[in-house]
Amino acid sequence: MIKTLAIIGIMGGLLCATADLLLDIKGPNNKKIGKAGMIESAWMNMAHWRFVWSDILAMFAVPMYSCGFISLMLVLAKEHQILATILTVIFLCGAMGGFMIHTFLCLQPTIYQRIMEKEDLALAQKVITSIFKQIYVPFFTLYAMLVIIPAIVVMVLIAIGMLDAPLWCMLLNPLVIQIIGLLFRATKLDIFIDAPSCCAASLGLATYGIITLMLL
Question: Where do runs of H (alpha helix) occur along the chain?
């Protein structure tokens, strides 16, 4: 069962990365618009079906990549059940927010496209900024519970030997891979302007399943 969950988790992370690419591949000519820089100029020319399918894929991907982390915690639970249970609860709460976050990000360009049919940039900016402020606290809280907290704890568990994986496996988590993706973007090269940074966290979520397979 643990092996099956790990494989499902890997597939879920890859599926979520595909959803991220549909949502966030905008090209090198994209510019940030507005005072807060929350609007992307490329949204106007992006096909609406991309946002629809991105959200549909995420609907399946979130429970699937959660299986990968659950599989890792089942391995940990053999000797540290309470810790594994706490981490699982934290991650699943974050995963609940993962779909909310993705849906919100898919709605932003749709809102922009519809308002810009009336060529009202000020209204588009006001609506998108207001919505973001409304979900700001749950957005970042649940993101931390999904990506940051579990990744840090898993790195520590590997470092101290509670998870008997090679030390280089400390690189296999969404936090580290997201940082690597951002470093690629920082090069300013056109090839790295969107990917892998836009889907790095999802690829990182897939790696929990990989660590599990290495521990079996």
Answer: 2-24, 48-77, 81-116, 121-143, 149-159, 174-186, 200-215
Which residues span the domain enclosing 54?
A: 2-215
- How far apart (Å, rounded) are the C-alpha atoms in residues 184 and 195? 8
Q: What angle do CA 79, 81, 85 make, to 5 degrees?
A: 145
Q: What is the DSSP string of 104-138?
A: HHHHHHHHHHHHHTTT-HHHHHHHHHHHHHHHHHH
The three-class DSSP label of residue 147 is helix
Amino acid residing at 31: K
How far apart, in whole angstroms, are the C-alpha atoms of residue 160 and residue 198?
31
Q: How many domains does the chain have?
A: 1
Q: Which residues of 111-137 are buried (b: 16+ CB within 10 A; e: fewer)?
A: bbbebeeeeeeeebbebbeeeeeeeee
Q: What is the tens place of the pLDDT at every residue in 38-93?
A: 888 899 999 999 999 999 999 999 999 999 999 999 999 999 999 999 999 999 99
Kindly report, residue by residue over 103-143, the tens digit of the pLDDT. 999 999 999 999 998 888 889 889 998 988 888 899 899 99
Can you give the length of the chain in residues? 216
Look up the pTM and report it.
Answer: 0.91
